[in-house]
Amino acid sequence: MSVVAPAAAAPTKRRFRYKRLLVGALVLVVIGALANLLGWDVKQWFSDLWDTMTEIPTGYLVGAIALKTVQTLATAFGWYAILHFAYPGGVRKLDIVACYAASVALNGILPANLGTLVMLLMFSTIIAGATFAGILGAYAVQKIFFTAVGVFVYLYLFLSVGGTFDIKFAFVHEHPGATAIVVVGSVTLVYLLIRRVWQRVLVWWQDAKEGGGIVAHPGAYFGRVFLPSFIGWVASLGVMSMFLAGYSIPVSFHTLMRISGGNSIANVTSVTPGGAGVTQAFNVASLNGIATPAQATAYSVSQQLVTTTWNIIFAIIVVVWAFGWSGGKELVGESYAQAKQKAAEQNAARKARKQAKKDAEELPGQAQA
Question: How far is CA 203 from CA 121, 123, 214, 276, 345, in A?
């Protein structure tokens, strides 16, 4: 007796969701209209992007995008290693990559590196048991490599320019007494400041050290954090090299260090979205004597335009992959709102401290009067 296998159920056809497509198109139209009202010429932006993509050889463009992706993934892996060590079992690699990619994209369009604060708040939201102080501790550990490499870049530039010591230390040779007073006074002020805030530092450290626990294990730190960070940094130099070569600007280690140092200063001093304008000014100065101002400006604008666009596209892909469209939008939106609120609270606190100090200085004068 043969048994006839039941016929497999015919696969149901997935209905094409026209409503979702129409809503998406409507959102894009509304965003475009809002951007136009705010003074951002979206049409011109896409025109500039197309011009940039067509004037650079395709090989350099693809290479730059690939290296930018490596930079993001390698740096994100360092973050994952830190947080996974601090909160074992509560961290997914894809989630960390998504949060970091979102911060990179946001830093390209928001002022004052607000995207980084958004990322820290996202971490404290998605990781069970994580505190914001603990995430700050992780941030401090993640910054160790980049602080060290920043010092290396400045030291290299300082030593590679002839006569730098004579220029920088002329004041020391000419005014030894004043120099000694400045040094002693600075050390004293730092000591008094540390004494005043030391108890707060101890309390903060108890919360923060859980997030940076991996630094107490050199093998784990250098293998899982320092090395990926180094790979990401080398990839960032590769991105610069691709765009420099694309505009026929000579590529050398010295040139890359000059641009890297200028970008570092621009990143610290800029308050414009993504450092627009400020970065270009520093790049032109960094390439002085190596490329014409027109070449330097074209290089800087195209690199920022292409990398910002790719960062946004990549962030959308991994955020939706990790959290879904609704979940990702809600997480990023709420974290951004919290970041703005926290930044506003910090500004208000600084203003309050300044006002309190001013009032305290005025009281003795009023009492004498």
Answer: 20, 21, 20, 39, 21
- Give per-residue burial for 308-320: e unless 16+ CB within 10 Å, then b: bbbbbebbbebbe
In a domain, 37, yes or no: no
Q: Does position 182 have pLDDT exceeding 60, yes or no? A: yes
For the cut 90, the answer to whether the pLDDT of residue 244 exceeds it is yes
- pTM value? 0.71
Residue 220 has pLDDT above 90, yes or no: yes
User: Three-state DSSP class for 288?
Assistant: strand
**Contact, 279 vs 270, CB < 8 A?**
yes
Q: How far apart are CA 347 and CA 83, in angstroms?
A: 29
Q: Say if residue 4's pLDDT is above 50.
A: no
Closest CA to 142 of 230, 229, 263: 229
Q: Output the pLDDT for position 121.
A: 87
Q: Are 108 and 303 in contact (CB under 8 A)?
A: no
The mean pLDDT of the chain is 77
Report the chain's terminal Cα–Cα distance, integer Å. 115
221, part of any domain: no
* 53-57: Cβ within 8 A, 24+ apart: 53/306, 55/302, 56/243, 56/246, 56/247, 56/302, 57/246
Amino acid of residue 34: L
Number of domains in the chain: 1
Task: For residue 195, tell me if it sits in a domain.
Answer: no
Please give the Cα distance from 141 to 226 (Å, whole number).
10
Residue 252 structural domain: 49-78+87-131+232-349
- Stretch 22-40: mean pLDDT: 51
How sure is the predictor about 347, in pLDDT bands with cuts at 50, 70 and 90?
Answer: low
CB 211 within 8 Å of CB 137? yes
